[in-house]
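Hi F.,

I've been meaning to write this up properly since the lab meeting, where we talked about keeping a consistent format for the predictions we share between groups. The idea is simple: the sequence comes first, exactly as it goes in, then the structure tokens exactly as they come out, then a line or two of notes. No screenshots and no reformatting. I'm using this chain as the first example so we have something concrete to point to.
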Amino acid sequence: MIHSRYSDKVVLITGGGGMGRAAALRILDESGKVVLTDCSPTVLKNLEQEFDAMGYSDRILFLQSDVRQYTDCCAVVRHGIEVFKKIDVLVTTAGILRHHPIDELTEDDWKDVIDINLTGTYHSVKSLIGHMKERRYGRIVLISSIGGRTGRPGVGVNYAAAKGGIVGMTQLLGFELGPWNITVNCVAPGPIGGGMFASLPAENREKLLQGIRLGRIGTFEDVASAIAYLGSDDASWTTGEVLDVHLTCISCPPPEFIRTAAAAGYDYVSLRTIPMGLPNEVPHLLTDRVLLKETRAASLETGVKINDTENARIFDGVNVQEYAPHLAAAAELGIKHILCNVWTANRSFYTKKFAELCQLAAQFDQDINLEFVTWAGITNLEQAAQLLRDVDLPNVGIVVDALHFHRSRVKLEELESLPKEWFRFMHLCDAVQEIPTDLDVLVHDGREERLYPGEGAIDLKRILSKLPENIVRGIEIPHSVRTAEIGFEAHARRALEYAKKYLE
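Output, unedited:
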């Protein structure tokens, strides 16, 4: 058993192929009920035998259906409701791929792909909307494709048109159905090692593999994890979004992250367990009791401590009280430090909300540590220090991130003049001397191309000399190319080695 997010949910999945099968297994493993459809009676019979052998026969219904026929889709919905009394979630995995250059594409090739992939999705959604509106509840997960919707080589124009259309459908329906508490989101997998991928010529498969950072083909289980998230109430405030899934968009779950850190030789970890609202984000919520238990077990097992969690952001319209469950869960793990950024220029507003956040954290014996970010609302040490003076509360702090320290041109004298008790942990990394003026470059470098300590021009030793001797030194060095080449654990290990050598 992984989680139990679906213990009271019924999920309709169209398409019994590899992705649909994996999604069904994931939902069943999370205690849900499933209606699984396919146009092939042979496929359904084989699946029924397989799931029966696993002991799931009482929680899954197999129905033959052709998504090209709206009447078939309506019949499936009626039958599913008759058996399970309701349908909460729709997942549309039914699809085909016919890959030919446009001058070789037949009318049937075009029509079949559009009819099944795009029109079939439309029929599946439309057949269920009345039921969902009546209940004022629904979660819809559509399936697009990174290759299809971005025009990457290796897929046909018919497939790209269909998958691009699904993205547009997702974005519009997010607005249209939101008032009925129905969310509509889309998973866009990269190259997956299934029948569609295998059917491609070797040259096309090679083209699709280019750019995958982890250097491996995805699995249906990778995609099923994303589907399970978007179909659950963990994503209740996410709609109209497209989640790209090609192995690097889903962060490592905390238990695995902790074990990776232990293997690489770290003493502490920082976790991201508070959602930031990013389009490609799959947050790992410690409010999930199973995940919290597993995270605690991993920490105890490895001896790796959790120093802090992030990110309690201050942004226009933020309701600070929504962070309370996340802070409470963190407190259960003994997490004392919460990282915060400010993403609004409204000083009076962010001062009020930061004070509220600090007061909330105090209820859990936690402190709020403000990180200034070069492209955020508070961009430098002076602004951060002024905010702490303005709120004048005992549980405040500042996080010095070496990259933002360097690129906001902080003078060491500024750091030296501030109370030492404000500084509990910091972020180590390196960067080139030149400071980009282009915002996109600033963001890209900060999120994907930080250097190991000693590789760049930041005087980390002088920065550390102005901070408390016992400050926790966190290594924050995201680098997409290096992780693609050597993997996450090796990258983490190498970052630690460089840091120790530099600081000797």
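Notes:
The chain has 20 helices and 14 strands.
The chain has two domains: 10-245, 254-503.

If this format works for you, I'll send the rest the same way.

G.
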